[in-house]
From TrEMBL:
High-level lineage: Bacteria, Bacillati, Actinomycetota, Actinomycetes, Micromonosporales
GO molecular function, one term: 4-aminobutyrate:2-oxoglutarate transaminase activity
Keywords noted in UniProt: Aminotransferase, Pyridoxal phosphate, Transferase
Record's catalysed reaction(s): (S)-3-amino-2-methylpropanoate + 2-oxoglutarate = 2-methyl-3-oxopropanoate + L-glutamate; 4-aminobutanoate + 2-oxoglutarate = succinate semialdehyde + L-glutamate
Organism, scientific name: Dactylosporangium fulvum
UniProt xrefs under PROSITE patterns: AA_TRANSFER_CLASS_3
Broad enzyme group: transferase
Name recorded for this polypeptide: (S)-3-amino-2-methylpropionate transaminase
Domain of life of the source: Bacteria
PANTHER family given in the database record: AMINOTRANSFERASE CLASS III, LEUCINE_METHIONINE RACEMASE
Gene: gabT
Length: 449
């Protein structure tokens, strides 16, 4: 007999600890995990989850934790969100797979039509659907190379684009993503990013862009560049928001040099920053945009969307994959997008951002360890530094995180130096729960001072 455990928004929206974290049942399950799961797969917090929804994760010991992670910016619409769950259930009963390249179905085309409508710019757009973010980035590079007949790919300091061979080359940070996994794909070149908190010379956004363009011109040559690939707000690299003017100047340079401008919005997309896409904030219109994470409420789906003439540069059969645009994942995406519209999750993200920014700025006044508060909408981070106000302090970030975890608040860290605490609450989190999570964070700073 199977028992059904209800998640979704029905799950009581409160923090409740009935054991230490992790509890005895989670510890036992974790020992089994250690026996059968590859050691290379990491764990942020070793509690096993049995239900989730709204802003809560409930574990197998009966603890309810506040979710400030959304499974890394994935469940913006909430876990087991009703329109997602309903459409997935219907689709699973109808059919689970045909392979879109063998025999097509409407869900795939519906998602591509939504992407054409929602992504920046009102030009003719087409999409290819894939199963992971890294796969989307790989395909964006393939498309840009086919379109331009050029090979070079330009990426930026602190970038994160995935864990496949090409995307490891594009990712900046060695440990843990690249160590021991080379040799890496060639023709990937790195340019300096705009990083306002750590700027020494190029404080202005357009100056920072010119600095990057100079590196590209001198070290690669504009005529060799197929594409620049950039996260409009860095994700794993530390939630760095480039200075105003950086992205528009870079996009303008790409356009005038026949370089495909690719925005990697895998972490920033789908309402996370208070707009459909982070590029929207400065009116930047990328040639290609990669999406994944927030698109389908937790089911694996990713896409490359872009100018029809660039997308169509690839010969028939040149793009695809067995599972890309799986019908169940497409049904989930359509349910998720429906919810983003009906609940106005862009407005929800902006409200979350206002609350987090005001609380975190107050905290920064009391704790000089917080060197910078940054982000946009419901994608917010604090960068921690030592007493000199500059030196990265990853130890403090780990200590604050550990305190939050022990108190039932799931937080994540990021940044090239591991000294950034990032907050990615579900966009449907009740305000009182978010506020309680931030209370615990304040306690964590006091307790680790
Ligand atoms: C997570 C992420 C990726 C990789 O996505 P996967 O689905 O993990 O392959 C690529 N780019 C950015 C900006 C990301 O945040």
């Amino acid at each position: 007999m199977s028992t059904s455990i209800a998640g979704g928004p029905e799950l009581p929206q409160s923090r409740r600890l009935v054991t230490e974290i992790p509890g005895p049942v989670s510890r036992e399950r974790f020992a089994r995990r250690q026996r059968f799961v590859a050691g290379g797969v990491g764990t942020t917090l070793p509690v096993f989850i049995e239900a989730a929804g709204g802003g809560v994760l409930r574990d197998v010991d009966g603890n309810s934790l506040i979710d400030l992670a959304s499974g890394i910016a994935v469940t913006g619409v909430g876990n087991a969100a009703p329109p997602v769950a309903a459409r997935v259930a219907d689709q699973v009963r109808a059919f689970t797979h045909t392979c879109f390249m063998v025999t097509p179905y409407d869900g795939y085309v519906d998602v591509c039509e939504e992407l054409a409508r929602l992504t920046p710019g009102d030009h003719a757009k087409k999409s290819v659907l894939l199963s992971s973010g890294a796969e989307a980035v790989e395909n964006a590079v393939k498309i840009a190379r086919a379109h331009t007949g050029r090979h070079a790919v330009v990426v930026f300091d602190h970038a994160y684009h995935g864990r496949t061979n090409l995307t490891m080359a594009m990712t900046a940070k060695n440990m843990p993503y690249k160590q021991g996994f080379g040799p890496f794909a060639g023709e990937v070149h790195r340019a300096p990013m705009s990083y306002p908190f750590r700027e020494v010379t190029a404080v202005d956004g357009t100056d920072a862009a010119d600095r990057a363009i100079d590196v590209i011109d001198k070290q690669v040559g504009a005529a060799n560049v197929a594409c620049v690939v950039i996260e409009p707000i860095l994700g794993e690299g530390g939630f760095v928001v480039p200075a105003k003017g950086f992205l528009p100047r870079l996009a303008e340079w790409a356009r005038s040099n026949g370089v495909v401008f690719v925005a990697d919005e895998i972490q920033t997309g789908f309402c996370r920053t208070g707009d459909w896409f982070a590029c929207d904030h400065e009116g930047v219109v990328p040639d290609l945009i990669t999406t994944a994470k927030g698109i389908a409420g937790g089911l694996p789906l990713a896409a490359v969307t872009g100018r029809a003439e660039i997308m169509d540069a690839v010969h028939p059969g040149g793009l695809g994959g067995t599972y890309g645009g799986n019908p169940v994942a497409c049904a989930a995406a359509l349910g998720a997008i429906e919810l983003m519209r009906s609940q106005d999750l862009n407005a929800a993200a902006r409200r979350i951002g206002e609350l987090m920014f005001s609380r975190l700025r107050g905290l920064a006044e009391r704790h000089p360890a917080i060197g910078d508060v940054r982000g946009r909408g419901a994608m917010v981070a604090v960068e921690l530094v030592t007493a000199d106000g500059r030196t990265p302090d990853p130890g403090r970030a780990a200590a604050v995180s550990a305190y939050c975890h022990a108190q039932g608040v799931l937080t994540l860290t990021c940044g090239t130096n591991g000294n950034v605490l990032r907050f990615l609450p579900p966009l449907v989190i009740p305000e009182q729960l978010l506020s309680e999570g931030l209370d615990v964070l304040a306690d964590a700073f006091a307790a680790t001072a």
